[in-house]
Amino acid sequence: MTRFLLAGGGTAGHVNPLLAVADGLRARAADDTVLVLGTREGLEARLVPERGYELVFVDKVPFPRRPNKAAAAFPSRFLRAVGQVRAIIRERGIDAVVGFGGYASAPAYVAARRERIPFVVHEANAKPGLANVLGARAAAGVGVAFEGTPLRGSVVVGMPLRREVVSLDRAATRDEAAAFFGLDASRPTLLVFGGSLGALRLNQAFGGAYADVLAAGWQLVHVTGERSDLADPGVPGYVLRRYVDRMDLAFAIADMIVSRAGAATVSEISALGIPAVYVPYAVGNGEQRHNAASAVAAGAAIIIDDADFTAARVRETLVPLLADRTRIDAMAGAAASIGTRTGTENVIAMIDRALGR
Fold first, then answer.
1. How many domains, in total, are found in the chain?
2. What is the reported pTM?
3. What pLDDT does residue 294 have?
C-alpha cells in the first residue's frame, strides 16, 4: 500500500486537477491512501471532503511581496508550516508528495525534501506560481499543462481533467445536448461562457450582437453567470442561461466557443478539439493570455483583448469567422492536435517514476 499526500488549493484551478489525480490514484489501487493537504481558507476546505477525501490542514503563509511586519514574521511562520507538514508525513507514513501550487504546496515541498521522500510538481498555468517555481528546483518530477511553461526540468503532461470531459463523446452526445438546450442538432452552435460568475464584457458584447450571430446561420448558447442581469430576449435559436450544470452537454453541442482563458478552460476545450476565441481576463499577472498562447500558435484559437471585445468587434471579427467553415474545421483539427485527455494518467506515471516504479 502506498500513501500519497496531495497538496494544493485556494482556487478551483489548483483544486480540480488535484482531485482528478486523487480520483485516478484511488481508481487504480483502492488500498492506497490519498490524503489532501490544504488551508482552512481555500476552496479545498469544501470541495475535498465533498469528494470523499480526508483533508488535513496547514497554516496559510503568503509569501511577502514588500518589506513590512508580515515579511518580518514570514520565516518563523513558514518554518512552523513546514513543521506541521513534516509531522503529517511522519504520522501518516507518507511515501510521496504531489503539489499543485497554492499556499499549501510550498511548505509541503520543503517538508518532503527534509523527510527525504520524493515530491512531484504539477503546474496548471503557463505562467507558474511562486510555490511551484521554488519547488521545481528540487522535485523528482515537474509536469506542466502547456508548452513553454518556464519551470526547471519540466515536461508537458497536460491537465488532469474532469471525468465528464475525459469521457465525453461529442458526436454521440450531440442529439442529447440539442434536446437539453432546445436546439437543432443539425445547425452549428456557438457557446459563450465566462465561468460561474460570468464575464461582464462577454455578456455586454453578445447582449448587443446575438442577432448578428443568429443571422449568420448559427445558434447561440450563452451562459451569463449567476450574477448577471442580462435580459433573455426569448428569440428562437438563442439560449440564455445563468448557470449550466451539464457543461459536458454544452461542450457536446458547441462548434465554436468564446470564453475566458483559465488553464482548465483552455485545456478542456483543446482536449475536446473545439476551436475557440479567447478573451483573457485582464487582471492578475497576465496568466490567461499565456494559457491561450499555445492554442493560438497552433492555429486552434484566436485572442481578442478584453478591452476590445464589444458588440461591434463580434460583428467585425467573429461573425465573418463563423461564415468560414473551412477555417473553423482547420482550427478544430489544430485544437485536437495540442489537446490531451490523458493528463491524469501522465501525472500518475510521473509519480510512479519518482517512486522508482
1. 2
2. 0.92
3. 94
